[in-house]
C-alpha cells in the first residue's frame, strides 16, 4: 500500500552539495518524481550557486544519499513536522521508497514538497504496534479535505488527489479481530469509519476459516436458517458446540422431535447472540417459539428431566411439582385403564356367549328344517308310490282295448257321406283317445266303455241322417216311378 505525507527542508539551510553548473539535476526546474531538489540558488546569472538536497529513500525506507554523484553530505535534510522542525526526518524513512511531488498541491498545503511512500504489507502491523510519533504526526490532506496521518492511512486507507492509499490494515477482513492498542480493528472501524462498514467486514471475516472458530463469530455462524445442519456438519465452528450440546440435552431428556420448534439458535442457546459478538445483517431475535418449546416439554411424562436443560430455563416451570402431578395422573390413569379393560373383557365374554348361544340355536333350527325337508321328501315319495300302485290296479281291472274294438259297429259315414275317421294310433301303437275323452282317470268310466258309447252315437247319427235323406227324396207322397 501507499501513504502520503508533506515534507519540509530542515530550517538550518543544509544541503547535500552546491553546484555551479547544470543545476542539481541538469535543468533549471524541479519536477514530480525528482530525487534531488534545488533548495535555493544565488549569485549572478553567469556564476550561480545551486543548493541541492537529496529527497529519495530506497525500498526499505533508508535515506540513500550515500554514494550518489557529487554528494558530500549524506545526512537527511528533509522533515515531516513543518518548516521549523529540526529533529524529525524524511516522512518515508522506515517505510519504503519515496516518490516526490512538487509544492503547490492542496494535498500537501504549505509544504515544500509532498511524498508518496510505499509500505510493504509485512511492515504494517509492526508500524501500527510501534505507534510512533512519526506515523501519528506525518500525513497529508485527502480528497475530502480531511487531514489523515500516516497511521490513519495504514489503518483505514484513503483517497487523495494524487491517488489512493490502498486497503487499510483494519479494513482487511482477516485483521478484523486484531488489536491496535486497546481496541480491535472492528471497534476502530465502527468508531472511526462507521458501524455498517464494520459489520460488513465482520461478516466477511467470519466466513473465513479463522473466523469460523472465533468466539466473536458464533452469532454469525448460527444466524442462518440452516444452522442445525451447519453445526452438525461443522462442530468446531464457534457457537456450534453450544447448539449441538443443547440439542443433545433435549434428546437425552426425551424430546426427540423438537428440532421443528427451533426457529433460531436462541431457542436452543438463549442469549447466544448477546454480548461481545459480531452481529449478522439482521439481528437474531429472541426465540419466537419459546412457548411452543415449553408447551412441548409440558406434554412429556418425564418433565423433571428438563430441569437442567438451558433452553427451558425461561419456561417458568416448577419441574418438581409438575413431575409429581404427572406421576399422580399416571397412577389414576392406570387404574382407570385397568377398570376399562376389565369392563371390556366382561363385555367381550358376554358377547361371545350370546354369539355361541345364537350359533347353537341356528344350528338346531337348521337341523330341524333339514329333518322336515327329509320327512316331506319321504312322504312325497311314499305318496307317489301309492298312486302308482293304485293306477296299476285300475288298469288291471279295466277291459283291454282289443275286446272293445270287436264289439264296436263298423264305422258309419258322416252326414256328408264320407266315412268317419278311424281311430288313430299313437306313435307307440296304442289307440288314440277318443275325442272329448282321454285315458281313463282313476275312479272314472273305463276307456272301452267310452269308446262303445261313442261308436253307438255315431251309428244313431248316421241312421238319422239317412232317414232324413229318404224323406226328402219322396216329395209329398212318394217318389217318381221308374220307367
Helix and strand layout, with pairings?
Blueprint: E1 2-9, E2 17-19, E3 36-42, E4 49-54, E5 78-79, E6 98-101, E7 113-118, H1 121-130, H2 133-137, E8 139-141, E9 147-149, H3 150-156, E10 158-160, E11 163-166, E12 179-180, E13 183-184, H4 185-192, H5 195-206, H6 209-212, H7 218-221, H8 227-233, H9 240-253, H10 290-298, H11 319-397, H12 401-407, H13 447-474
Antiparallel strand pairs: 1-5, 1-7, 2-4, 3-4, 6-7, 8-9, 10-11, 12-13
Helix pairs in contact: 4-5, 8-9, 12-13
Description:
The chain has 483 residues and is an alpha+beta fold. Among the domains are: 169 residues, no CATH class; 111 residues, no CATH class; 56 residues, no CATH class. The strands form five sheets. Strands 5-1-7-6 form a four-stranded antiparallel sheet. The chain has a three-stranded antiparallel sheet with strand order 2-4-3, with no helix packed on it. Strand 10 and strand 11 form a beta hairpin. Helix 4 packs antiparallel against helix 5 and helix 8 crosses helix 9. It starts with a strand and ends in a 9-residue tail after the last helix. The C terminus is likely disordered.
Rg calculated over all Cα atoms: 69 Å
The global form is rod-shaped
Q: What string gives the helices and strands in order?
A: EEEEEEEHHEEHEEEEHHHHHHHHHH
Output the number of helix runs. Answer: 13
Oligomer: single chain
Please tell me the overall pLDDT: 80
Low-confidence stretches: 411-440, 476-483
Q: How much β-strand is present in the residues?
A: 5-15%
Total beta strand runs: 13
Distance between the termini: 182 Å
Structural class: alpha+beta
Largest sheet: 4 strands, antiparallel
Helix content: 40-55%
Strand order of the largest sheet: 5-1-7-6
Amino acid at each position: 500500500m501507499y501513504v502520503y505525507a508533506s515534507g519540509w527542508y530542515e530550517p538550518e539551510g543544509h544541503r547535500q552539495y552546491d553546484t555551479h553548473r547544470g543545476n542539481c539535476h541538469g535543468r533549471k526546474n524541479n519536477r514530480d518524481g525528482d530525487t534531488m531538489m534545488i533548495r535555493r540558488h544565488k549569485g549572478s546569472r553567469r556564476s550561480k550557486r545551486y543548493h541541492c538536497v537529496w529527497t529519495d529513500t530506497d525500498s526499505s525506507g533508508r535515506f540513500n544519499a550515500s554514494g550518489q554523484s557529487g554528494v558530500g553530505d549524506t545526512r537527511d535534510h528533509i522533515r515531516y513536522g513543518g518548516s521549523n522542525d529540526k529533529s524529525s526526518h524524511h516522512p518515508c524513512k522506515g517505510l519504503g521508497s519515496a516518490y516526490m511531488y512538487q509544492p503547490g498541491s492542496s494535498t500537501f498545503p504549505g509544504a515544500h514538497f509532498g511524498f508518496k511512500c510505499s509500505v510493504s504489507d509485512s511492515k504494517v502491523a509492526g508500524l501500527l504496534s510501534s505507534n510512533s510519533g512519526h506515523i501519528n504526526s506525518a500525513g497529508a490532506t485527502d480528497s475530502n479535505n480531511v487531514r489523515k496521518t500516516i497511521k490513519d492511512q495504514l489503518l483505514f486507507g484513503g483517497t487523495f488527489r494524487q491517488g489512493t492509499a490502498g486497503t487499510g490494515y483494519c479494513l482487511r477482513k482477516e485483521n478484523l479481530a486484531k488489536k491496535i492498542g486497546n481496541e480491535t480493528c472492528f471497534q476502530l472501524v465502527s468508531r472511526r469509519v462507521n458501524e455498517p462498514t464494520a459489520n460488513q467486514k465482520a461478516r466477511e471475516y467470519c466466513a473465513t476459516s479463522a473466523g469460523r472458530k472465533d468466539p466473536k463469530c458464533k452469532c454469525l455462524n448460527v444466524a442462518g436458517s440452516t444452522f442445525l445442519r451447519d453445526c452438525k456438519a461443522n462442530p468446531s465452528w464457534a457457537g456450534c458446540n453450544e447448539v449441538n450440546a443443547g440439542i443433545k440435552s433435549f434428546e437425552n431428556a426425551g424430546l426427540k422431535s423438537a428440532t421443528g420448534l427451533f426457529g433460531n439458535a436462541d431457542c436452543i442457546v438463549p442469549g447466544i447472540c448477546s454480548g461481545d459478538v459480531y452481529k449478522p445483517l439482521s439481528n437474531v431475535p429472541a426465540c419466537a417459539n419459546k412457548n411452543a418449546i415449553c408447551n412441548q416439554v409440558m406434554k412429556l411424562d418425564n418433565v423433571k428431566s428438563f430441569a437442567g436443560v438451558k433452553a427451558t430455563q425461561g419456561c417458568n416451570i416448577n419441574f418438581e411439582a409438575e413431575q409429581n402431578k404427572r406421576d399422580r395422573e399416571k397412577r389414576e390413569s392406570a387404574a382407570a385403564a385397568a377398570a376399562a379393560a376389565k369392563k371390556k373383557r366382561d363385555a367381550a365374554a358376554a358377547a361371545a356367549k350370546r354369539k355361541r348361544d345364537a350359533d347353537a340355536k341356528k344350528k338346531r333350527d337348521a337341523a330341524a328344517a333339514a329333518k322336515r325337508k327329509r320327512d316331506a321328501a319321504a312322504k312325497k315319495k311314499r305318496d307317489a308310490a301309492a298312486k302308482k300302485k293304485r293306477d296299476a290296479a285300475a288298469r288291471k281291472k279295466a277291459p283291454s282295448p282289443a275286446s272293445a274294438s270287436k264289439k264296436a259297429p263298423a264305422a258309419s259315414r258322416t252326414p256328408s257321406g264320407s266315412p268317419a275317421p278311424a281311430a288313430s294310433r299313437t306313435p307307440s301303437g296304442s289307440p288314440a283317445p277318443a275325442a272329448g275323452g282321454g285315458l281313463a282317470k282313476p275312479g272314472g268310466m273305463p276307456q272301452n266303455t267310452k269308446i262303445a258309447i261313442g261308436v253307438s252315437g255315431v251309428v244313431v247319427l248316421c241312421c238319422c241322417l239317412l232317414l232324413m235323406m229318404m224323406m226328402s227324396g219322396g216329395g209329398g207322397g212318394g217318389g217318381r216311378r221308374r220307367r
